[in-house]
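Re: that chain you flagged

S.,

Sorry for the slow reply, it's been a week of failed gels. I finally had a moment to sit down with the sequence you sent. For the record, here it is as I used it:
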Amino acid sequence: MRIRFSLVIGGAVWVVALLNLSGAGPLPQTPKKPVTDEYQGVKVEDNYQWLEQDDDPAVKAWSDAQSRRTREYLDKLPDRAAIEKQLTDWYAKTSPSYSGIVSRPGILFARKFQPPKQQQMLVTLASAEDLKSERMVLDPNKLDPSGKTAIDWFVPSRDGKYVAMSISRGGSEDGTLHVYETTTGKPLKDSIAHVQYPTAGGSAAWNADGTGIYYTRFPRKGERPDSDLNFYQQVYFHKIGTADSEDTYSIGKDFPRIAEIKLEASRDGKYILATVANGDGGDFAHYLLGPDGNWKQLTQFSDQIKAARIGRDGALYLLSRADAPRGKILRAPLDKPELSNATMIVPPSDAVIQFMEPTADAIYVGDLLGGPS
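Prediction finished late last night. Pasting the structure tokens below so you have them in one place:
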């Protein structure tokens, strides 16, 4: 794999290989202080191990001298001021960008980033071509002028009337779930703490009629030892307009300590898929909540199903590496979603299947052939 670094200045590409410091002052003295360590019976002498002690005054003095010499040289470069001005101008650009677009009937939800604001905002658009239709749902920069409050993730209800957001403060990524009216941007009284944390992230999925939401939650004080309060993620159900103390447990008590749960609702809201990662090791189990209100386990960690998606055609799509190291895609009906009922629709090939995206009339497959370059 080849990695190229380039800096574009005024339309030209400058490839920086090595700075000639001949015009700089003399190099700070770097004395040799031999230290011999033995690794598996082999003695290794290191003359500069002393430089690893960053709390040593001698090391600090050496580092400061190096920095002064470099600074003096760089400040004298004739083009430095022009480069600094160009970079400053680029970084100061205020052109907005949109990402994380989610579609609902007649409306698009999107994250909007607009420098120099620190945090992304949540907006709605009538269409991707009509930016003038933009309406603000939540601007964390106004919520917290310090710029330390962020939207971790958001999930609109099926009809787009409400949008649930995990909001964290102080860079903690310890998210609290809030629900907002889309058209007014007004928050409802609903608030659920500790739905998101860096150890496993967080997720949510609305029910069919928008009266409630399934969400991930970490243990609360007293539910587990303090050392486990950021692990053992589970799924609960919250009815809109009620206190979170009335929320009901849904699934997850038997999941691993390091489980990471991702929830996805079908377009009609009748099914909810839970993808459970066993930490970051690449093993996944999948569970499906059906119209009868019961969860059904579809796959186990040992089944080598690396991804699952609910299609628009009443089917479940699975990316499998069982007996197929490069991947194959299976399809099973949602009303009979067991792995034994799945049929192969995309066979293994010379390409490695990276991802899949089922749509109304096709399934898009991302293949990697020959490795990254």
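What I noticed first: The first strand starts at residue 7 and ends at 9.

Talk soon,
D.
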